[in-house]
Amino acid sequence: MIYDKKVKVEKRVERAQALVIIGEIFAKAERDPDEEGDYMAFEQLMAEATAKKEKKGDDKAAAKKKEREEAKAAYDAKVKEHEKSRGEEKERRKSRFGHHHNARASSASPDGKDS
Questions:
Q1: pLDDT digits (tens, 9 = 90+) for 44-90
Q2: Interior CA angle at 47 toward 45 and 48, to 5°?
Q3: Is 2 within 8 Å of 16 (Cβ atoms)?
Q4: Closest among 85, 106, 84, 103 to 95, alpha carbons compared
Q5: In the 8-state DSSP scheme, what is residue 35?
Q6: How many CA atoms lie within 13 A of 50 on its CB side?
């Protein structure tokens, strides 16, 4: 409204002054004492609705956090299982191929030539 560059500066200044006047009027506004109870009831309803909405949001956030933690734990377990199986496979290969390698080494003559 006052930042529209298509409108002349003079008109934007008038609008800004009007907004200041409106703000002063609203700042001076007071409740009618006869209707105070109605306002309080409405404000109480709004406060309760806001609190419920915030709690619901907190519950959703907690559920998402728990879901992420469970997914990470499952992933970590899979990685650990994979690493364990790779280590076992490495040991099997080492014992299988290491045995043949050692047999060749023991059949070689001390000078390094095959017998």
A1: 999 999 888 887 778 788 888 888 888 888 888 888 888 888 888 77
A2: 65
A3: yes
A4: 103
A5: G
A6: 6
